[in-house]
Amino acid sequence: MSFNNLDTLYRQVIMDHYKNPRNKGSLAEGDHLTVDMNNPTCGDRIQLQLQVEDGIVKDAKFDGEGCSISMSSASMMTQAIKGKKIEDAMKMSELFSDMMLGKDVDVEELDLGDIEALQGVAKFPARIKCATLAWKAMEKGVDEDQA
């Protein structure tokens, strides 16, 4: 597939997650982590809720508003971490951050799925915070929960 076709496909995946977000909403009342974060630079804001049982992310939801990159990334992240051990979700977050910083990341190791569509964000430094907002919220929630 040519670069232009791949770029178009990635844009379509990002816009699909933006227009049809997965896991948008709130978790039912109960025991779950809630983290609010925002990116004051561009106005993106997110509320992330995680239900963690026995060290596994049983459910994840987000709400908020922002650009297509931040909301798509939140949609993709919540899909990717459901059912994962906390350690694996945190490792995925670390590798995603590395990818956003333009470092070489073994995408096969990550099993990125739709998240791979965000690779191109690394070329736009001003948008990296948009893409990583939900991931940083997840890290903050896990850190606070384990403290």
From TrEMBL:
Coiled coil: none annotated. Gene3D superfamilies: 3.90.1010.10. InterPro entries: NIF_FeS_clus_asmbl_NifU_N (IPR002871). It comes from the Bacteria. CDD domains: IscU_like. Residues 10-130 form the NIF system FeS cluster assembly NifU N-terminal domain. Pfam families: NifU_N (PF01592). PANTHER family: IRON-SULFUR CLUSTER ASSEMBLY ENZYME NIFU HOMOLOG. This is Fe-S cluster assembly sulfur transfer protein SufU.
